[in-house]
Amino acid sequence: MSSDATASTEAEKAGAPSLGRPRRAAVAGGVGCLVEGYDFSAYGYLSVFLAPLFFPTDSEFGSLLLALVVFGTAYLARPLGGIAFGLVGDRVDRGKVLVATILLMGVATTLIGLLPTHATLGITATILLIVLRLVQGFSVGAEVAGATTFVSEAAPDRYKSRFGAFNSAGASLGFGLAAAVAGLCSLLTTPEQMAEWGWRIPFLLSLPLTVVCFLIRRRITREAEPVAEDTEVTLLDVLRRGWRPILKGAGLAVAVNGTSYFGLTYVSIHLIQQLGYPKTGVYWVTTVVVLITALLMLPVGRLGDRVDLPRLGAIGAAGFLAVTWVGMWLMDQGNLLLAAIAFMVIMVNSAFLQVTGYALSPEIYPREIRFTGMSMGWNIGVIVAGGTAPALCLWLVESTGSSSAPAFFVMAVALVGLGSLWAIARGPRPGRVGG
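User: That's the sequence. What structure does it adopt?
Assistant: Structure tokens below.
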């Protein structure tokens, strides 16, 4: 008998829930979110190299802004992917959808690494890059909802937060891995080599990562609970039954994604482009900060099983309100170590808010529409404040002349999150037995 089976038997005899399946579900969700996070964020970290290669203009700022706009454009495809994959997940099989999203994302990311640049294909190269970013967006549009739904439905009520934290930690580790690979490539190549071919390496490494994740996820997601045979969910059903939780989920997603994309994507651009810190040093700072934040999510997830999740999220949102402006000011003092410490202090709050977002969001939707409903709510929030975060923050700096101006964006989305958490705490949570 396997150790999981033995543990399950002993747990059942003791009247405790078996944790073997929730652990496996958490692994499947976490590794998938890691690969999706890596694939999707690599573009953001490498945008300073992609900008002149695919968006040549008369100014460095203009090229970078166009590159970041395309970064945000990928989010336009997220709701379409979320709805299309979500309806399949609610009608047929959650697990098969999770396997499909990984394969689609991996292929698109690898192809970006093979693209000719504007100097070779002209505007066609730019269009192809935009198309592949849209494919990435279509794929990732269902990833968060699918992974969190899969894990939440496998976990007992009193352990939903600790297992749900694997998804948020996996996504953040994916961002950290992308930053680490970008930093390593920058360290091992000259600026000329990085601009010529070194930028391709992080995208091409997606292929082996995708293969490994596919093998893990295909095996574990076979354990997904089957949907009811008579389930014929339509988009109209989702909107009619789920418009209230979709609005609440969208508000929470605005806060989670606005704050996380500020830290995981924009800050590295800010430190390099606006404040003039060395690229390699910034990539390594980002890697360390993101790694620590991701690892912090695991104990925070355990804390979430002791306190109500809306309260846990409120800690993170209030923290962003308290420290972001000061942290941005400290980053502008010309000391990379001081900037790194300020960055870390800001991102501690992300651990609380992300764990809450990933663990709490599935709970507010009825099971019959959970995948699709959460996809819609989450992707609305991502479009409003996630994909737009880098471009908005860059625009705020340029239009105000203040390097601390992006702090006001972060504080605004944190306030939206507090309002949504207040509404969720006072409403039903069908994803919990007692909800």
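The longest helix spans residues 235-274.
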